[in-house]
Amino acid sequence: MTISVLLPYKENYSFNHAGAVSLFVKDMVNESHYKKEILVFGSTIYKKFLTKNYVNLELNKKIFQSTSKIYIKSFLES
Fold first, then answer.
1. What phi and psi values does residue 41 have, to the nearest 5 degrees?
2. Which stretch of DSSP H or E encloses residue 41?
């Protein structure tokens, strides 16, 4: 069983730039009995992530395309 957590696409999951959602997810992952089965997905340019189970999604923005749709498509393909 794998539990996937998808962060909002503007949320950074790094030590120095983490937002409220990232800090909440980090705390929940660390306290969970299922921490080995949880994967956290998001998109950030920083490389020092809050937990080891983070998967960074590539977000290739295009001019006339919804960023949310691109983000969800990248999540579904991973």
1. -110, 140
2. strand 38-42
Q: 37-68: per-residue pLDDT in tens?
A: 999 999 998 889 999 999 999 888 778 888 88
- pTM value? 0.88
Give dist(CA 76, CA 51) in Å, integer.
21
Hey, what are 50's tokens? 């809050």
Amino acid in the structure at residue 28: M
For tokens 């999604």, what's the residue?
A: 57
Helix and strand numbers (H, E) in the chain are 2, 3
Q: For 16, which DSSP code?
A: T
Task: Quickly tell me which residue has 């998967």 as its tokens.
Answer: 55
DSSP class of 14:
B
Copy the structure tokens of residue 33.
């009995």
